[in-house]
Amino acid sequence: MTDHTNADTLRTPIVAVLGHVDHGKTSLLDTIRGSAVSEGEAGAITQHIGATDIPLDTISGMAGDLIDPTDFDLPGLLFIDTPGHHSFSTLRARGGALADIAVLVVDVNDGFQPQTEEAIDILRRTGTPFVVAANKVDTTPGWNPQDGQPIQRSLAAQSERAESMLNENLYEIIGQLSDAGFSADLYWRVQDFQKNIGVVPLSALTGEGVPDLLTVLMGLSQRFMKEEMAIDVQGPGEGTVLEVKDERGFGATIDTVVYDGVVRNGDQIVVGGQDDPIVTEIRALLQPRPLEEIRTEKKFEKVAEVGAAAGVKIAAPDLDRAMAGAPVRVVRDRPLEEVIAEVEAELAEIEVDTAEDGVVVKADTLGSLEAMANALREAEVPILRAEVGDIAPRDIAVAETANQDEHKAILGFNVDLLANAESELESADVKLFTNDVIYQLIEDYETYVEEKQRAQQ
Ligand code: GDP
Q: Where does the record place the Tr-type G domain (predicted)?
C-alpha cells in the first residue's frame, strides 16, 4: 500500500449510482450535475465521456456550510453517468470494481426491491464502500419542501406527523440493510462509515439532503482513497472500455474510463478484444465540447493527454474488435509482451465455466456476462457457451446442438438479435429470451422450463 500523504497523489474518486428501477438514480445524477452547473462559473463541471467531473470547490459550494474544503485533499468527484448495477458490474478495474465508492438509491416508500438486493450483492462481492440515498422524502404526506437544503434544516420545517412517517420508512430501510448483513444508521449518527452504512434521506426532485450526500461521499472517499488505494497517477494509463462506438471520421472508437495513470495521444495501447488482445496506437483522444459550442460538425475536442480519473474517447485502428468491459493498458516503458499478458490475465478472470450441455448466453459486456454466469450458476442452469455480442446465426446453430430440449435456448442480456439471424431463428428449434434485467431473464427461462416439464408429465 502506498501512503498518500501528498495531496498531488490522490486522484479523483470514481462514484457509481445503483438501485432499483424508478427509485431515482437518473434524477439524482441530474440534480447533482444541475446544481453543479448552477453553482457557478462555466467550468464548474468538466465534461467527460461517460462521466462527470465535479471539482472540490464546486462540491463545497453545493454542500453549503456542511463541507470545509480545506479538510480534503481530493480534487473532486467523478460520477459515472450511466446509472444502474448493470453498468456498475461492467465497470471493472483489475478484477475489482471500477467505482471507488457507490450510492445505493432506495425509494423511501418502496424500500428494498429485487434490484436493490442485486446491487447489494454486487457491492458486497466487490467490497465497494457505499452510502444509501433514501430518496423521494418529498413524497411523505404533508411534506413541506425545502429546496436544496441540508436534511436537518428540512426536517426542522416538517410537521411532527410528516417527520414520524418518514422515520418509520427510514427505519424500515435500516432494518432491511441489517437483514442483508450491514449495520446501518441515519448518517448523522454514524461515526465510522467503513464499518457502518450511512443512510441519507434526500429528494432528487427538490434537492434537499443532496448537500448531505455530497458531504458523506467526500468523507468516505477521503478515507478510502487514503487507506486503500495505491495509485500511480503519473504512470502508464490503465482504464476500462465502457462502450465501443463508430464515430464519423474516426471509425471504431472506445469510450474509456481511465482509473490510473496518464494516457497520451500516440501511446501504444493493448485493449481486450473479442479473440485476442488488440495492440494499436492512439490516433486521437477526444472529449466532448461544451454544449453551447457544439454546432453540427464537431462534437469532440482533441486533447493531448488525460490523467486518472477521467472519461475519454480513444480513436485508434482495429478497435472494432474491442469488448465493452475489457481492460485498456498503455504500454509506455514496458515490454509489450508483459502488457499483453496482463490484459490476458485480466480477461481470464472473467471467463465463464461452461458445460457439455447447457444454454447459450450472450451479453453486451464482459461484466454483464459474468453477472449472468453467476446468476445462472445460482439457478443451477448450465452454460454451453457464453460470449459478448449481439445474437448471430452462429449462436442459434450452437444452441441447436444442445442435448436436452430445455437447453436449446439463448439467453440474451441487453443484446439484439442480428437481422441476418432472424430467419435462422424462425426455422430453428431454439427458444430465444432477451431482457435487460437479469433476474427477469432468468425467471422467464425458468418459467419456460417448468411449463415444458409440466407438459411432458
Ligand atoms: P431510475 O430508473 O432509478 O433512474 O429513476 P428515475 O430517476 O428515472 O426516476 C423515476 C421516477 O421517479 C421519475 O418519474 C422521477 O421524476 C421520479 N423521482 C425521482 N426522484 C424523485 C424524488 O426525489 N421525488 C419525487 N417526488 N419523485 C422522484
A: 10-226
Residues making up the annotated binding site for GTP are: 19-26, 81-85, 135-138
* DSSP-derived secondary structure letter, 316: -
**Residues 6+ away with beta carbon under 8 Å from 456:** none
List C-alpha distances in Å: 113 to 23, 354, 375, 439, 441: 10, 30, 17, 12, 16
457 bridge partner residues: none
Q: What is the mean pLDDT of residues 167-195?
A: 94
Helix ranges restricted to H, 91-182: 114-126, 151-156, 160-179
Asked if 253 and 313 count as a contact pair (C-beta separation under 8 A), the reply is: yes
Q: Considering all CA atoms of the chain, what is the largest pairwise distance in Å, rounded to the nearest integer?
A: 71
Q: What is the identity of the amino acid at 23?
A: H
* DSSP single-letter state for residue 417: B
Find which of 232-246, 278-292, 308-322 is predicted with most confidence, using mean pLDDT: 308-322
Integer distance in angstroms from the first to the last C-alpha of the chain? 60
Sign for the CA dihedral angle at 153, 156, 161, 165 comes to: positive
| Helix, strand or coil, per DSSP, at residue 12 | coil
Cβ 217 vs Cβ 103: under 8 Å: yes
Q: Is the CB of 24 within 6 Å of ligand 1?
A: yes
Pocket test for ligand 1, best of 22, 25, 27 (most atoms within 8 A of CB): 27
Q: In this predicted structure, what is the pLDDT of residue 4?
A: 37
Distance CA 240, CA 220 (A): 23
Query: Position of cell 471520421?
Result: 249
pLDDT, residue 227, reads 61
From residue 394, give the alpha-carbon distance in Å to each of 122, 244, 390. 32, 22, 11
Cβ neighbourhood burial of 305 (10 Å; 0-12, 13-18, 19+) = middle
* CA nearest to 286, candidates 261, 323, 258: 258
Question: Distance between CA 212 and CA 64 in Å, rounded?
Answer: 9
pTM of the model: 0.84
Nearest-CA residue for atom 9 of ligand 1: 24
Alpha carbon nearest to ligand 1 atom 24, residue? 136
Does the structure show a pLDDT above 50 at 3? no
∠ CA 196-127-203, nearest 5°, is 55
Contacts of 369 (CB under 8 A, 6+ apart): 325, 350, 352, 361, 363, 386, 387, 388, 413
Q: For the ranges 46-50, 126-130, 154-158, which has the lowest average pLDDT?
A: 46-50
What residue has cell string 454544449? 291
